[in-house]
Amino acid sequence: MCTCCDAIQVEVCSRGLATVVTKAHYYCIVTLFKNCILAFVPVIFQRGVAFQSCLLGFSIVLFMMHQQQVQPWKSNIANQLDGICSAALLSLLLCGTLATPTNLSIVKDLQIAGTAVVCLLGVFLIGGLGYSLYRLCVPGKHYKWFICHHKADASAQARLLKMLLQAG
Predict the structure, then answer these.
(1) Whether 131 and 147 share a structural domain
(2) What percent of the chain is modeled with pLDDT above 70?
(3) DSSP letter, residue 160
(4) Is the dihedral of CA 86, 87, 88, 89 positive or negative?
(5) Which domain of life does this protein belong to (predicted)?
(6) CA distance 17 to 12
(7) How far is residue 126's CA from residue 84's CA, in Å, rounded to a whole number?
(8) How far apart are CA 47 and CA 109, in angstroms?
(9) How confident is the model at residue 98 (pLDDT cuts 50, 70, 90)?
(10) Which of 40, 65, 85, 108 is 20 to 30 A removed from 73 (C-alpha atoms)?
């Protein structure tokens, strides 16, 4: 026996589950991981606000770049708003960091964090250049169309698809 409330509840549940794009079905795990990092960084690294802010800022930027690359939400507005919320969180973190007093130990922590970031950027830059040179020297095979079929069963369908692709 189906009532009106059950039909509405099924509709709401189906719309709620359909908010993430199929190719990004894992994005809820990424969001959970991001929230765990944001919660546990101040607990694990209690040494200074500046070091915590550097780690939190780096993780927010990393997850924001991933979100903008994957575009997990079905609506473009939702994807843009997710990026805007991450940027607003980063701005709020920066304002809070600038409001804290500094001393010599905080400056030393910032030097260590800055050196680590510069080294990490150098590794990524050298790795990216190396991969680009590898792809330049060893190019892959380029196909305009690739049709894979079982010769006995689908050869006629493959020929039809090839003719349609060549005609259009």
Answers:
(1) yes
(2) 82
(3) H
(4) positive
(5) Eukaryota
(6) 9
(7) 31
(8) 9
(9) confident
(10) 40
8 Å CB contact between 73 and 20: yes
Which two structure tokens, joined as six digits, stand for 48?
Answer: 């200074």
Between 11 and 72, residue with greater pLDDT: 72
Long-range contact list for 4-8, CB < 8 A, 24+ apart?
none
Domain count, the chain: 2
Q: Say how far apart CA 48 and CA 50 lie, in whole Å.
A: 6
More confidently predicted of 27 and 12: 27
Q: Do 6 and 77 belong together in one domain?
A: yes
Are 124 and 43 in the same domain?
Answer: no
**Location of structure tokens 């990490």:** 120
pTM given for the model: 0.61
Residues 90 and 113 in one domain: no
Which structural domain range is residue 48 located in?
1-100
Q: For the chain, how big is the Rg over CA atoms in Å?
A: 25
